[in-house]
Specification:
By secondary structure, this protein is of the alpha/beta class. The chain is built from eight helices and 15 strands. The relative contact order is 0.11.
């Protein structure tokens, strides 16, 4: 079945002016990164490209045809020069107040794609810049990629379409803990973490925030016994999530950081090489920080290393115990961000062995 990219024009291919009409060449500015990435998509992937655009009042006195088509045809010719050819164009001329079914997010212009076994709409996308584009995707049964939403740009669009989204969900249930971890490696740093241990939550939030990852962790553990199972099993589940989300590991940097935090210097070096190992060079003089036993820091990172299959080397020096462990978590986050960065233009496995 044929996959389709339903692509908006104004605000997506070209920048939209304040009056929302591209009726003169001096108003024409292409969206940054669009040519490079859409050309890559057209060359490397098998999507059918379909333009879907609302042009309010086209053909009326407020927007004459003769001011639209010269600029529009120039846009198409310029795109074709970069190997980008649209199979079809669907342009609606109605005003919003007309409430016409052809106008996005209505699907009146796109009935040939609906309930048609020729098209794989579930794995097709609407690419746009407005909520109406996202709603069109819902109405079509497609996915959506919306420029400007959660940091989405053309670089990210090309990466997702070519290499896929890097998300994972792990549910780990034992007699001691019930844990759910959800991870998006290419998120924006949003976190929702509840382990029952406030300081542990604060540390895990650093991974999402400073790693640029969306991270949700929900834990129901046997804290009436002690903190051990909750902390250790959370590390195991989080490690499994990283392993799943990375998938083939093609195109990733693989390696990753040291950073200071007030009096402390914290170093976390890691390698997603498939061989778990932990070097731990950090001492704590306090028994607990918050309600978290300092002896459990080692166990957390050992669990994380085991299930994510990473080589993890951690060193920390300094006087303030809180700063020391927070610095370690922040350095881990930055190391992860560096190591999981993906380059679709050099999409090889980063290993001379040919396997990770």
């Amino acid at each position: 079945m044929q996959r389709v990219l339903f692509i908006d024009r104004d605000g997506t291919l070209i920048q939209e002016p304040a009056d929302e009409q591209i009726d003169a060449f001096e108003k024409l500015v292409f969206v940054p990164g669009m040519f490079k990435n859409l050309s890559f998509i057209a060359e490397k992937l098998d999507f059918k490209l379909v333009m879907v655009s609302n042009q309010d009042g086209l053909g009326t006195s407020s927007f004459p045809e003769e001011t639209f088509w010269p600029v529009h045809n120039f846009i198409l010719k310029t795109l074709e020069g970069e190997g980008i050819r649209f199979d079809k164009q669907h342009i609606d001329r109605h005003f919003p107040e007309d409430n016409h079914p052809d106008r996005k997010p209505g699907t009146g212009m796109l009935t040939e794609y609906l309930n048609n076994p020729e098209y794989d709409l579930a794995n097709s996308y609407v690419i746009g810049d407005r909520e109406s584009d996202a709603q069109l995707a819902v109405n079509m049964g497609c996915k959506s990629l919306i420029l400007g939403k959660d940091g989405m740009n053309w670089d990210k669009i090309a990466e997702i379409l070519f290499a896929g989204e890097r998300t994972a969900r792990v549910q780990r249930t034992t007699k001691e803990t019930d844990i759910c971890v959800e991870l998006n490696l290419d998120g924006t740093g949003k976190t929702d973490i509840h382990t029952g241990l406030g300081f542990f939550d604060h540390m895990l939030e650093q991974i999402g925030k400073h790693g640029g990852m969306d991270l949700t962790i929900r834990v129901n553990g046997d804290l009436y016994v002690d903190e051990h199972h909750t902390i250790e099993d959370t590390g195991l589940a989080l490690g499994e999530c990283f392993l799943q989300a990375l998938g083939s590991k093609r195109g990733i940097e693989r390696y990753g950081y040291c950073l200071p935090m007030d009096d402390c210097l914290c170093q976390v070096a890691l390698d997603f090489g498939g061989r778990p190992w932990l070097v731990w060079d950090a001492e704590f003089r306090r028994e607990k920080i918050g309600e978290m036993p300092t002896e459990m820091f080692f166990h957390f990172f050992k669990s994380l290393s085991d299930t994510s299959k990473i080589n993890l080397n951690i060193k920390a020096e300094g006087d303030n115990e809180h700063h020391k462990i927070e610095g370690i978590f922040k350095a881990l986050a930055r190391a992860l961000k560096m190591a999981v960065k993906r380059d679709i233009y050099h999409y090889q496995l980063p290993s001379s062995k040919g396997v990770l």
